[in-house]
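ingest -> validate -> predict -> emit
validate: passed (alphabet ok, no gaps, 465 aa)
predict: started
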Amino acid sequence: MRSTGTDANGTATRSPWRPSSDASTGWSTTPQDDGDDSRLWRGWSPVGATTPPIRIARGAGYHVWDADGQRYVDGVASALNAICGYGHPRLVAAMTAQAERLHHFELMSGVHAPATRLADRLSRLFGGELTRTVFVNSGSEAIEAAVRIAVDHWASRGSGRRRVVTLAAGYHGSTALCQSLSGLPHMRNEYADPLPVTRIPLPGPPSALDEPGAAQALLAAFEEAVTGHPDGPPAAVLVEPVLNVGGGSPLPAGFLTGLRELCDRTGTLFIADEVFTGFGRTGRMFGFQHDGAVPDIVATSKGLAGGYVPIGAVTTTAAVVEAFRAEPVLGGLRYGHTTSGHAVACATALAVLDVLEDERLVQRAAEMGARLVDGFRAFGGDPAVRHARGRGLVAALELHGPAEAEAMVRAAARHGALLRAQGAAVMAMPPLTIDAAGVDALLDAIRHGLAETAPASVGVERTPA
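emit:
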């Protein structure tokens, strides 16, 4: 970070310096004021944090640069959404062309081709009975809409089913309803729960999901929650195929298959939260495909437009939609937003799906993911590491506590890699465009980070901070 001193409040001020042009991208700037950081209130960040955030100036491919010109391998894909990397010319062209033609028209009063084409494309991508899509603007909105669809579906059928069963370690967004679904400590709020929620604890720490019998233990807990509750079966069960904020843990093999059978047996709707796993992140197009268990409702968002513009989607079956004909007020879904199905976002999403197919990025995620997860597991014998896990381009090292994880993330950044700390876990989730050199650079930064945070544990000399 560059600064020119402090203001009257003692806050560091930044110079208007920016790096000159980069021949590889054609990017260039002229000196300008970057703005006062103190005016920006960042969500999910402590007030008065002593470590200033990295000021990201630009990105290209799977790299980003800070305002001082330092290059990083982006091991978090911005917020897990930059699946096609930065500055992809086909995505920029799609955004520009659609903005010139029609930037948006809201979908309550009319329709436009980008939205109808994307809904059709998603139907063909999912296959089977998942043929109806409603668009929103974010992952939180997608989950809120999915849960509301499930509950209102039963109400339209004259049923009182309102309860939702989730994993306590799940994360499903930051609206009041979404936060109420989670049992993670930092998600709890002071509002009354909008719906009754049964939160299932993991059978142990996140590493327990790798142990033999984990699927059976988890299924037994869901069986009890679904069939043994005094209020009867729930409206829906909601799970992430890979826990994100809950520690980067894939659900055990066979669990989703068993959950699908349980839902079929009890008439419960199965909602898959594919907000971050969707569109190739796990080495399959969707995380639920690893078990071959098809949900009734799927929520997607992050990768859908590659992070270039906000968009989310909820895809379900014709049977779920048809129940809304009996909805007493509107005869349809009473949910939507001004910019839902934004034309530029839908056009960009269509281009993302083309890029995923043409550049074989789902296959690359499987191949590079194997290299990344194997590299993480190679650190498993290190005394600083309690457990290593992952699936596709989601990899996690569980250290001995949150402080150790935060220290590791800071150390990795000094060695040119951006990682994320989720509790005691250090996670890498890079763009799907990453190659072997990028994966190796992430692993090398972690190796040095382990040496710096626990220098006796690995054979790398400590380097000055």
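The chain has a mean pLDDT of 90.
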